[in-house]
Specification:
The complex is a heterodimer of chains A (291) and B (292). With 291 residues, chain A is mainly α. Chain A has helices at 2-50, 52-57, 71-102, 105-118, 123-142, 149-173, 177-185, 190-201, 203-219, 222-228, 245-252, 259-290; strands at residues 61-62, 67-68. Chain A contains 12 helices and 2 strands. In chain A, a hairpin with a 4-residue loop joins strand 1 and strand 2 (67-68). Chain A starts with a helix and ends with a helix. The mean pLDDT of chain A is 90. Chain B is α/β, with parallel strands linked by helices and 292 residues long. Chain B is built from 11 helices and 12 strands. Chain B has helices at 2-17, 24-42, 55-68, 81-90, 134-142, 168-178, 193-202, 231-235, 255-265, 267-275, 287-291; strands spanning 46-50, 74-79, 95-98, 110-123, 131-132, 159-163, 188-190, 206-211, 220-221, 223-224, 242-249, 279-280. In chain B, strands 1, 2, 3, 4, 6, 7, 8, 9, 11 and 12 form a 10-stranded mixed sheet that branches. The chains are: A mainly alpha (291), B alpha/beta (292).
């Protein structure tokens, strides 16, 4: 009898805990809903007033004169993100493969936490290092003003490195040792084993790491404002200055009023849509590939 | 040892008896008191609105004024010079702030020049250029002159640095230098006087503009049409990139607004203005005196 009541007690307790956890999960979603409602109600009216086409395809951003073309910023965001991926993904993957397959355990124990430490450095510090070291370096060695797509890509590539590296390492380490042992036993070299057995098996984790890295690159603001130059023209080469959607909002929010302010919320709407599309595409491809 | 353990336990019990939730009524009570406190003077307060370039300075004036006269409330808002003048006309604000001279149809308002601010065109100290004409500066910022060679400097592209859209300093530059011309889209955009100065200090081929009070050794303020941006030249208004900071009221100021404006024009207020890097009101000749 006594036993049964305690059983009942634990059950109702568990129910309570489940309800509590459900509430936390829902509150996270409701915050997302709140943010989207807020951005869309602030940003959509002006987009309807001036037409979506003008926002998406016009090259002129003169917000105080009523020209709200966001195309240079949209392309700028994409260029900088792709640039960051070109630098960050190969480096991160190569590092993860080396640390899991070819290095000694000791090296891994030292190097991995140190790289993860990189993720804890505030972005303004990356921006500062970019301004002081990388901008003059690019200006003197490659030309242009130094504030450029290239500079922003390099710094962002370094910033997403720890994300890609540590998640890839975790997913490679999580593979059963039998995969590797079996492949080696069949006569494959270490590199063949890595390339043909381990990487495909750890694919979903590696893709997840790349998606997370991409998300950070698209959303990064502070470091990009400091090193990208923020020009509103379409960059012709990677040495031209560029403005991203996030920096457009952060740069001009301080003084903006009226339609200018609404246009910045419209920038937020477009950023929101781009991130949603990127995430969906990334999720779909990862699901397809892991099948 | 034993007694130590006991006191510790006692302490723990003592604290646990203070349930966190028992503080909630107290918390709301304090909140209520504070909110009712801050509501009262709001009815008596005055609103100042306008130029975003004056706004940060006016925030400080209001702060010092309110510290000196407890119970007075001054509410400083931005919106731009034209919006500020409009607000003063319609009565939405008791005082409007304008960082440009009033247009003839706006002269119905009473104006008080409280300070002057100069704009300096700055380049890297290693750049041999000393002097540019207003026309050349305009063409450089419009992207029509792209190499320093065209104005007698080194054979290298000019890197134009400007402020973000909506900034008061950019507005003043647009008005006094660019006129109807647009600042080139290719220019590097920075979001404060300080970062513009930082970029120009680090780039031998850059040109930018900042508030005159913020010029220092690491950048070179060039002469404009042969006139140096010195205090003397500003006082005589020979250096052209100077703008007044004007407060406007609709009709003669009421008691409260009068007190505030008098405070800024007093020696104490003018001393504060000097410390903020602005030029005191009485040091510069007004348009009328220049004409005489």
């Amino acid at each position: 009898m006594g036993n049964r009541t305690t059983m009942k007690g634990t059950e109702s307790k568990e129910k309570l805990i489940r309800l509590f956890l459900l509430a936390t999960a829902l509150s996270a979603i409701s915050i997302l809903a709140l943010i989207s409602v807020f951005i869309f109600t602030e940003g959509l009216p002006i987009m309807f007033r001036h037409g979506f086409k003008k926002f998406l395809f016009s090259l002129d951003w003169y917000p105080t004169e009523g020209h709200f073309g966001l195309l240079p910023m949209i392309i700028g965001s994409l260029m900088v993100t792709v640039g960051a991926m070109i630098i960050g993904v190969p480096l991160g993957l190569a590092g993860a493969i080396y640390l899991t397959q070819f290095s000694s355990k000791k090296v891994r124990m030292v190097v991995k936490p140190m790289i993860e430490l990189l993720a804890g450095i505030p972005s303004v510090v990356y921006g500062f290092i970019g301004v002081v070291i990388l901008v003059p370096f690019v200006r003197e060695n490659f030309g242009g003003p130094g504030f450029s797509v290239l500079t922003a890509s390099i710094i962002l590539g370094i910033m997403i490195l720890p994300t890609i590296l540590s998640i890839s390492i975790d997913s490679l380490m999580a593979l059963p040792p039998a995969y590797r042992e079996g492949s080696i036993a069949l006569g494959a070299t270490e590199w063949q084993t890595t390339r043909m057995v381990l990487l495909p098996a750890a694919r979903s984790g590696i893709i997840a790491s790349i998606i997370l890295g991409m998300g950070r690159a698209v959303g990064e603001t502070m470091a990009v404002i400091m090193i990208a130059g923020n020009a509103t023209s379409l960059p012709r080469t990677i040495l031209d200055p560029v403005r991203t959607l996030t920096s457009n909002i952060a740069l001009e929010m301080g003084y903006a009023s009226g339609e200018h302010r609404q246009a910045l919320f419209a920038t937020g709407v477009i950023l929101f849509i781009i991130i949603m599309v990127l995430n969906t595409v990334a999720n779909l491809t990862s699901r397809k590939m892991s099948r | 040892m034993k007694s130590k353990g006991r006191t510790f336990k006692e302490k723990a019990e003592f604290f646990s008896s203070f349930n966190i939730f028992s503080f909630f009524p107290l918390f709301f009570f304090t909140l209520f008191i504070f909110s009712s406190c801050s509501l009262k003077p709001a009815q008596k307060g005055i609103t100042i609105a306008g130029s975003t370039s004056i706004q940060p300075f006016a925030d400080q004036w209001a702060e010092v004024f309110m510290a000196k006269y407890p119970g007075r409330l001054i509410n400083v808002q931005g919106g731009g010079s034209s919006a500020g003048i409009q607000a003063a006309m319609t009565g939405a604000a008791q005082i409007g702030m304008s960082s440009r001279e009033l247009k003839p149809q706006e002269k119905v308002l009473q104006e008080f020049i409280v300070a002057w601010d100069g704009l300096a065109i700055i380049i890297h100290p290693s750049n041999p250029i000393e002097d540019l004409s207003l026309e050349e500066v305009r063409k450089i910022f419009a992207g029509q002159i792209v190499s320093w060679k065209e104005v007698g400097g080194p054979d290298h592209n000019i890197h134009v640095v400007t402020r973000e859209e909506g900034s008061g300093t950019r507005g003043a530059f647009q008005e006094m230098v660019m006129g109807k011309e647009r600042i080139t889209k290719k220019s590097i955009v920075q979001d404060s006087n300080g970062t513009v100065r930082e970029v120009v200090a680090g780039n031998p081929y850059a040109i930018g503009y900042i508030s005159l009070g913020l010029v220092e050794k690491r950048v070179k303020a060039i002469k404009l049409d042969g006139i140096e941006p010195s205090l003397e030249n500003i006082m005589s208004r020979r250096y052209r990139l100077v703008r007044p900071f004007i407060l406007v009221t609709n009709g003669p100021p009421t008691d409260e607004t009068h007190d505030f404006i008098q405070f800024i024009l007093s020696s104490e207020g003018q001393e504060l203005i000097k410390r903020q890097g602005l030029i005191p009101a009485n040091l510069v000749m007004t348009e009328a005196k220049v004409g005489q």
